Amino acid sequence: MTHCGKFRTGPLTRRDMLARGAAGLAGAILPTLLAENTFARSINGITNADGLGAKHHAAKARSVIFLYMDGGPGQMDTFDPKPELQKWAGQPYPRERSATQFEEVGGVLPSPWTFKQHGECGHTISSLFPHLATQADELCMVRSMTSPFTEHTNANYFLHTGHGLAGRPSMGSWMSYGLGNENENLPAFVVLNGGLTPPGGLDCFGSGFLPPEHQAQRMVPRGNGLPNIQPRETPDHQRRKLEALRSLDALHAAEVDSPQVDAAIKNWELAFRMQAEVPDLMELANEPDWLKEKYGFNHPYEPTRIYAAECLLARRMIERGVRFVELTCPLVDGDRWDQHSNLKEGHDNNARAVDQPIAALLEDLKVRGLLDETLVVFAGEFGRTPFAQGTNGRDHNPHGFTIWMAGGGTKPGTVYGATDDFGYHAIENPLEIHDLHATMMHLLGVQHEALTINHGGREMRLTDVHGRVVRDLCVS
Fold first, then answer.
1. Which residues pair with residue 252 across a beta bridge?
2. What is the pTM (predicted TM-score) of this model?
3. 32 Cβ partners below 8 Å, 6+ apart?
4. Has residue 33 been placed in a domain?
5. What is the dihedral of CA 93, 96, 98, 99, to 10 degrees?
6. What is the 3-state secondary structure (H, E, C) of the chain?
7. How open is the CA angle 67-70-72, to the nearest 5 degrees?
8. How many C-beta atoms lie closer than 10 Å to residue 232's C-beta?
9. Is 419 in contact with 429 (CB distance < 8 Å)?
10. What is the rounded distance in angstroms from the CA atom of residue 464 to the CA atom of residue 29?
11. C-alpha–C-alpha distance, residues 387 and 343, integer Å
12. What residues make up the domain containing 160?
């Protein structure tokens, strides 16, 4: 058969090569392919020489620990004191208000906690956080965060993915996709599950339209962290089974253009490598007793002990090159930080669970020289109202709330933005979650506008068409 010469054979793709070589060649070539961090090697053509991902500028941070405060702590009860609430205690809120989630509006509700200034910077911190207050000079406080959503599920999607509906990649997935990992034996994105899955479920940690291998690996802060991580077979037997799986997956991948198959191949390899790394990672016996005591391992309150393990494991993970670690809250007596009633008891219990471990984490990172390169972020999905829901709770408030950051190139001991004198609306330098994401990526060395992937005919990014780097939060 002849051809006219007007057609040219296309370049040999990976799948073509696997199809032609079938199982034998696949077994030989796949280890090399699997070793490549394909999707994280370049961002808009910029490639890092070390192959760990691309950066657009010098990074201040190399990893993130995200302390997710499920439910929404009250800003006027934690880090944004409002004496005006005491003056109006029990009276109707005197200004125009927005609709609330449940519309059970009572009188103005003062904070039941006292505030004092702490550190050389003079951060004003609630008596809810006596341990964290000792680290005041490390905190970069943002008192003007806003969100467009008043309901947990949508607000959680927005906080985690920059979009109010399910299906978008989590910020941890974007960090994995853009920057890769520093340890091929561990996932780039880990969620330490303290006991509470946020409203919105696992989509908060999903990879969305990014390659599936960038979704979070969920682990528990006890035992081996994962079920069946200890091998039950000899390494040789496991390797032969893995080779057989490689061959089968390669044959399927040669016929079907499927990111899921690619991810499955990579995950088999990662799971095999994790069997050697994870047991050592989870082994806390080698940590000194005095340090575990500082974190709260011997605390009489079980949720504190759980969160202490999460925080210590987060430090061990970023030491080993995990890019993004998220900590979820433990189940306390009552509810997550979502006190529609019994504000005093609920916030007391949630703060008791996390205060000591977080303070110990910040101090431990600093002593080890890791805080400068680790960005720690403390945030809920929104805040609470200055007036009561019923008599002794607070409803959701996305109009102005507080988060804080520490380390990783943020300005320590500073306060950015402000809410009104009731703590209801951000009135000075209001920020959106998109701005937070853009700033986090900037500190990691990535321009948020440039880290994109084509999906549905358009270039998609974590910050969508929004977001700005808030340079006032960053050291120069």
1. none
2. 0.86
3. none
4. no
5. 70
6. CCCCCCCCCCCCCHHHHHHHHHHHHHHHHHHHHHHCCHHHCEECCEECCCCCCCCCCCCCCCEEEEEECCCCCCHHHHCCCCCHHHHCECCCCCCCCCCCCCCCEEEECCCCCCEEEECCCCEEEECCCCCHHHHHHHEEEEEEECCCCCCHHHHHHHHHHCCCCCCCCCHHHHHHHHHCCCCCCCCCEEEECCECCCCCHHHHHCCCCCCHHHCCEEECCCCCCCCCCCCCCCHHHHHHHHHHHHHHHHHHHHHCCCHHHHHHHHHHHHHHHHHHHHHHHHCCCCCCHHHHHHHCCCCCCHHHHHHHHHHHHHHHHHHCCCCEEEECCECCCCCCCCCCCCHHHHHHHHHHHHHHHHHHHHHHHHHCCCHHHEEEEEECCCEEEEEEECCCEEEEECCCEEEEEECCCECCCEEECEECCCCCCEEECCECHHHHHHHHHHHCCCCCCCCCEEECCEEECCCCCCCCCCHHHECC
7. 105
8. 7
9. no
10. 37
11. 12
12. 56-241+285-473
365 φ, ψ (degrees, to nearest 5): -60, -40
Binned at pLDDT 50, 70 and 90, residue 254 comes out as low
* Residue 296 domain-assigned (yes or no): yes
Amino acid at site 262: D
Counting Cα atoms < 13 Å in the Cβ hemisphere of 19 gives: 11
Beta bridge partners of 388: 394
Backbone φ, ψ for residue 320 (5° rounding):
-95, 5
d(Cα 95, Cα 419) in Å, to the nearest integer? 14
Integer Cα distance of 116 and 124 in angstroms:
5
Residue 1 lies in a domain: no
Name the residue with higher pLDDT: 33 or 218: 218
* C-alpha to C-alpha distance for 422 and 84, rounded to whole angstroms: 6
Q: For residue 352, give the nearest of 365, 333, 327 by alpha carbon.
A: 333
Sign of CA dihedral 278, 280, 285, 291: negative
Contact (CB, 8 A) for 439 and 410 = no
Read off the pLDDT band of 246 (50, 70, 90). Answer: low
d(CA 412, CA 475): 9
* Residue 200 covered by a domain: yes
Q: Give the tens place of pLDDT for each residue, 135-192.
A: 999 999 999 999 999 999 999 999 999 999 999 999 999 999 999 989 999 999 999 9
Q: In whole angstroms, give the CA distance from residue 226 to residue 281.
A: 12
Read off the tokens for 364.
Answer: 């431990």
What is the domain-level CATH number for residue 352?
3.40.720
Cβ neighbourhood burial of 270 (10 Å; 0-12, 13-18, 19+): buried
Overall domain count for the chain = 1
Q: Contact at 8 Å (CB) between 214 and 207? A: yes
